[in-house]
Amino acid sequence: MNSLPIIDISPLYGDAPSAWQSVANQIDQACRQWGFFYIKGHPISPARITQVLDQAQRFFRLPVAEKLKIDITQTRHHRGYGAVATEQLDPAKPSDLKETFDMGLHLPADHPDVLAHKPLRGPNRHPDLAGWEPLMEQHYRDMQALAQTLLRAMTLALGIERDFFDTRFTEPVSVLRLIHYPPRHTASSAEQQGAGAHTDYGCITLLYQDAAGGLQVRNVNGQWIDAPPIDGTFVVNLGDMMARWSNDRYLSTPHRVISPLGVDRYSMPFFAEPHPDTLIQCLPGCQDEGHPPKYPTTTCAEFLLSRFADTYAYRREQQAV
Ligand SMILES: O=C(O)CCC(=O)C(=O)O
Ligand SMILES: [Fe+2]
Predict the structure, then answer these.
(1) Which domains are delineated in the chain?
(2) Fewest Cβ atoms nearer than 10 Å: which of 32, 61, 164, 245?
(3) Domain Fe2OG dioxygenase: where (predicted)?
(4) 100, 87 contact by CB (below 8 A)
(5) In sequence order, which residues have a C-beta less than 8 Å from that of residue 305 and are 6 or more positions away?
(6) Which atom of ligand 1 is nearest to the CA of 179?
(7) Which residues 6+ apart lie within 8 Å of 257 measured at CB?
(8) ipTM score here?
(9) 216: CA distance to ligand 1 center in Å?
(10) How far is the CA of 199 from the centre of ligand 2 (A)?
(11) What's the pTM value of the predicted model, to 2 decimals?
């Protein structure tokens, strides 16, 4: 139980059903044992990753005042720049030593959900950098498609229709996040949390991490093990909504990021979350007499908002108004 599985998902892009089944089995096994795995053989090109990473570095190097022009704390729909210490993932530790950029599905001002002031709905807020907006919007769509391919493979083992997730991921509230972790400078501050220990909130997360390292995953014995960067892969993990959907058959596993020593770290998680009104309730195949549903039914939006309120002080303040 000391290293995460690496799964080649390229057969999901061919049409041999038996190869599809074999990938689905590997994913199922990893979701039950770990809730974490690496994927290789995915269609996101190295050139794309380099372009997005270059833009991320350009953005985070801007003066703070410039970045704060798209301050996430001034929105109600979770878009834009989060300065260092805006988020506190582990309530037992200081706020996270990281800065972030978040974007979602761009909805124009005349979209019915925006007119109705639905939470998490609205336009993206991009920085004014040449080439940024079309690149990030395209990358968001491609990451969404990759997430849905993995979810489709997961339906085989979960005993649900092949299009179960596709029908629920119309106009999703998925988030593409860029993260910069500033370095710590002494080994003695080894417990400095770039991202405090947490489980992810949503369905499935696909994470690109650069070469700096620092991501750790808690195994079933409670030990923190390294999830080192591996070229050409994404780290995939399940979030709490998937644990609830599957009645904990699939694990939502705690993880954290130790701040890099002397170097900057950049990462880009894509959090795949369904349409905000989606009911998150125990799947029929994940319950029986001995295993009744453990969690009450909730909706995607309700659940996400409660988790945001746990980790963002500004969100609690907004709700108090
Ligand atoms: O940056 C990383 O490697 C992980 C970030 C993470 O776990 C998160 O943002 O939920
Ligand atoms: Fe996470």
Answers:
(1) 6-320 (2.60.120.330)
(2) 61
(3) 171-274
(4) yes
(5) 119, 120, 315
(6) 1
(7) 98, 181, 193, 194, 195, 214, 215, 216, 265, 267
(8) 0.99
(9) 10
(10) 6
(11) 0.96
